[in-house]
Design brief:
Elements (H helix, E strand, L loop, with lengths): L1 E2 L6 E2 L4 E7 L6 E9 L6 E4 L1 E4 L5 E7 L6 E11 L4 E11 L10 H28 L11
Parallel strand pairs: 2-9
Antiparallel strand pairs: 1-3, 3-7, 4-5, 4-8, 6-7, 8-9
Length: about 140
Amino acid sequence: MIAHTPPGPVYTGDPIAIDANVTDYTGQVASVWLVYTPVGGPERNVTMTPRILPTGARVWSYTIPGQSSSGTVAYRIYAVDAQGNVASADFTVAVRARPSAPPLDIVPFVAVAVIAAIAVLAAVLYLRRRRRGSEPPTPPTKPMS
């Protein structure tokens, strides 16, 4: 028996983790493999590897590489027991285009830069006036007689 929940939609470039819980009434699963068709590519046949989860459950795993374009990845999981009995199940996963980053709104940055420039200019002018005000006045010159 093959128990597998397909992953939800993934974005282009993201790997697609496939885990299946495969059991046999005799308890002797001999091998599990995956046949998948990538978006716009030829069918591939790969062996899934057994893995023990922290809960102690045994799953069979394979990671399909990230897809370069959006579409659908179709795949079938096959399992064979020690007596040669075969089971299989078909699945698909949607691959969506990765959303682009939203455009950077430059207006707030320009506004902050303008305000900062005005503040610096005001400080410079204030310090110049203050410096002029603190200089001692020049004494008047006496006419020579």
